[in-house]
Amino acid sequence: MAVEGETAVKIASTFSWQDVSMTVQKGKKKEKQILSNISGSLSSGKVCALMGPSGAGKTSLLNVLAARIRTRGTTEVSGNITLDGQPITGSTLRKRIAYVMQQDILVPTQTVRESLWFSANLRLPKSYSMKDKKELVEKMLVDLGLVKCADTFIGDDMIRGVSGGEKKRTCVGIELIMKPKLIFLDEPTSGLDSYAAHNVILKLE
């Protein structure tokens, strides 16, 4: 798990990056170096955290590793990033990668179970039957400790719903439902109390 402050990555395969750099053009002549020749690797089943002060480039590195930032416009990215020896490029390979953002993006009027079910219906291959999807959703609820709140609304400022920790675990479940080989999480414990944060990390492991 790669973590900004706790920006994170859960691995189910071999993932490596070599000489990763990123620069941003600011004005006609001024260039800002965001990342410089960063290399590393993670073996199967490992959880790894990227930690450092604000502005150190943790989220930038996470986004580059997840192929969310590439050379475009004023941004230039270089280096080699591979998953199972294959470069992380192209839509097919990116489907093997999941990304949980720092901000929870959930529908407040859906229940936890409905949120997972919606993701399963939208993202799983057509080869999955309705029964397969239902079993996967129920297993995810158990694995992430969400059974007791499965039929509770996500909620927001206007609708009473689940806790912050339960929302975060639901976000994780929405991504895990597609069975990725690699999952990135940007500050997965941000805004949570120590108990909820500990719970989220335990479930990720």
UniProtKB/TrEMBL annotation:
The record places domain ABC transporter at: 15-204
Output the InterPro entries linked to this UniProt entry.
ABC_transporter-like_ATP-bd, ABCG_transporters, P-loop_NTPase
State the Gene Ontology terms under molecular function.
ATP binding; ATP hydrolysis activity; ATPase-coupled transmembrane transporter activity
Q: Which SUPFAM superfamilies match?
A: P-loop containing nucleoside triphosphate hydrolases (SSF52540)
User: Which Pfam families does the record cross-reference, listed alphabetically?
Assistant: ABC_tran
Q: Which UniProt keywords apply?
A: Membrane, Transmembrane, Transmembrane helix, Transport
According to the lineage, what is the superkingdom?
A: Eukaryota
Instruction: Enumerate the subcellular locations listed in this protein's record, separating them with semicolons.
Output: Membrane
- Protein name stated in the entry: ABCG11 protein
Lineage in the entry? Answer: Eukaryota, Sar, Alveolata, Dinophyceae, Suessiales
Q: Which gene encodes it?
A: ABCG11
